[in-house]
User: Fold this.
Amino acid sequence: MNDMEQARQAIDDADRQIAALFEDRMKAAGRIAEYKKLNGLGIIDAKREAEVIANNSAYIKDETIKEYYPLFMKGLMKQSVSYQMRLNQGMRVAYTGVPGAFAYIAANKMFPDAEYVSYPDFSLSYDEVVKGNCDVAVLPIENSTAGDVGMVMDLIYSGDLFINRIMSIDIEQNLLGVKGATKESIRTVFSHPQALAQSSEFITRHGYEQVERVNTAVAAQEVAEKNDKTIGAIASYETASLYGLEVLEKAINTERNNSTRFACFSRVLNKNVRKKSGDGFIIVFSVANEVGSLAKALDIIGSNGFNMRNLRSRPMKSRKWKYYFYAELEGDAFGEAGSDLMIQLKTVCDEVKLAGTYAEGS
Assistant:
């Protein structure tokens, strides 16, 4: 064993000890969180944190290494605070949009007792989970009529989070208005372009003017603020109660068989979802631009006995005319067949990763 191998072995040994001590420390932090909750104390104690860093720095003998110790401890304490807040306040769920948006509805259905944190775009919602500021993110991955959500698909391929749950939400559009408004009093409707398109027959039949907004919930919020009986919003039923609006007409979208699938993204791969009917897992991979390369990967999936529910391709931003593939497979990713599958795919794919496991619900 050469010097580098010995050093790496020493790091591996130290990391195993650190992992065990980290778990012990977080469990102790959990007991402190319970005490603080019972006694009405705040989670963050800046004075105590400064004392711990100052006192423990004395244990570091190497003066150069000692310079890095406060940064190490501050990162550790940040995660401790995040864990205590989760225990005392519940999960923090990131989503894109405003209360009443379909992502908000999906987040509420997945995590009824959580704190919902709104962000203006998919990347920010995703990144807040990566940073540890939120526990999970609920983001749309595809719509039954509009297809996949490209930006989220790219995050699945290039990001570090895992999909642990998928839920399908039926998209039903309704005409909303302020108190006293009627279908006849409405002259203009606000909504997202897709919702306007889905309700085009109803809009044309009533001769409404259309005004686009960034999403359906924002449209409803604006209608409530304007308090004008001639302006309506096209949005979900749930949105009406959030903004104090009345449902003037239900289910106005022409296409009734319309739904969006939302995925829950987490920092940890869920290994408990397995061997149940309907459970599945997601892989993303890329192959060489050669004849038969994709066919080889698909043959491996089939030969290992996995039913492929979904296969999509997306262009890779970093490489011109290069594509990656997103596949949903039915079965157990952690059984013998799943392990063999990943090993075999690595022999024919440029890149391959297990992007998540899930039980799909609606």
